[in-house]
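Hi R.,

As promised, here are both runs. First protein below:
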Amino acid sequence: MKKQLLLLVMLVLAAAPVWAQTHLVDLTGQTLATPLLGGTITQIIDARPDHSTIGQVYTGLDYVRTEANLKRSLETEFLSLLRTLPVSTGSSTFALRVHQLHISENLAGSKKATAELVVDFLLPQEANRFRVVFRASGLAESGGLDINGKHPLTIAKALQNCLIQFNTTGAVSPSDAQVLTLEQAQTPEPNAGPLVPYPITLTKAPNPGLYRTFDDFRNNNPETTGARPVIISRTPRERGEWAGIDDVEVFYLGDNNVRTPVRDAWGYCDGERTYVLHRRRFCALEPNGNRFTFYGPSAADRAAVTSSTLAAGLIGTAIATAATSGHKQFYRMSLLTGHIEATADEEWAADAPDSTSIVVYRRADVKQPLAVQLNGGAVGDLQESSFVAVPWTDKRKQAQLCVGGEAVTCSAFQPSFAGTNYFEYLPKTASRSTAELKPVTVKEGEFYVKRLRLQQRHREVKAKKS
């Protein structure tokens, strides 16, 4: 029995991350209920640094880590969603500049789907320029059994939250508000922060006390009036992965000096350092640009727990949970939304490359070679039973793949960087009225391209013999 349990632990710890096909999020059917009081949004400017993904999700019973993206372009999805708004009483027209759209899933405890959105409201000016009048951030969560299916709802809720912020606050840009050209508005602003700095970022000596909410922290406004006495305890750790990071605990101090751990606060400040309560542990925050970062305990690996449960029942669940949780994990916290997310580990980062490939293949049909173009440029000829592969590195640009001679067939798409983008060219036949470029899965594409390579080698060997 001990040998079996040891083998199970080794399998859990040795498990390698796996990527699946891109998960597409379709906002069709979502609606917005609260109108924009100041007017109407008529233009979407996508200023995100990466259009190839909106985050990662977990799919299937074995929780395979999967890149996610919108089914259609962000401009198309958001304009369609904004058309569901009730008619506004305002007369102004706005452009919405999108800095960030990110979705994630929390599988620890109650499963949740999360969407983060950071946008600017822009007021069009003369000569195709835009004045930045407001920056909004939306954070929305939704739970349930099928959290993959909750992402359209959370994205819609995040956008609705941004509209409500604008309705509540109005155009409150600083006196030196930017006026941008269209090209400048389209240029990414990495890690966009608030237009007006939050008080917590402007002080070297934050006010001491308990933060009841994230807003209390951001505004450097801890609880002081009527607050229960609290004390902080630090225990240095000198061994293992946590060496050099204190074990911090904050207690309410009651009668007879009875200590009760604080669990009903967002965080704490001792007058020098600030802490966030994360997974029942107080973690020291460090400013990092427009974010704060910290080291905290990791959550259990849901895929490993699921596999171990299937292999060894409740004992497997307990072992996998203990083996994969509580480890030192680096976290980032957005100062705009307050969302906390574990950063990518080295394996994850290695699996998120900066380049991908677009491959179009053609099985036996007519022998006439067909020209292949990518965004208007010639990249090769598609012969009978062959393929054309083209490298791709631009994460912000859409691709248009075209194949044909006199009659050209095209497909416009956002290339995925989670795997090779495969297309099969299907010619016009008696049952197919027009030629088609059919996107296929990585597994299917790899199978046929490997088969075509073998056929090509066979033809080369046969030609040499003759």
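And here is the second one, sequence first, then its structure tokens:
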Amino acid sequence: MHRAIKLILKMALWCSISLSLILFSIKILAYMKATPGEKMWNENNTCYAITYIPNYKPFGGVGRILHLFSNQSFFVVYDNTGKKIKSSAWYFWQYQFSDLVAPEWSGIDFLYPSDSGFSGWTLSECKK
């Protein structure tokens, strides 16, 4: 009896870990296949930000369910040569969206809407 319980617990743990890895892999692929929005330049034209919408459609029903529990969008800031400076893609603890409030620049600060109001970064790379 004791062995059967241990076996069942080990199988449940293995299934949970496997499912988590599969869902995380789908999330990574959806972010890699994200649809970019238009470039939003700062006032000095030294940096720009792009809003990306993760693409869960290729993953069918599992993708639709995962989309329900994921960020609506994420934000990436680049310098004027196209080098990535900052990304909010892996901020899982923060719900990010772009349909109600637009992200914005304020000097060298990039602000994007999140569940806590506005989040963002001060980017010294974006000075003149």
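A quick note on the second one: The helical segments are 2-32, 60-68. Let me know what you think.

Best,
J.
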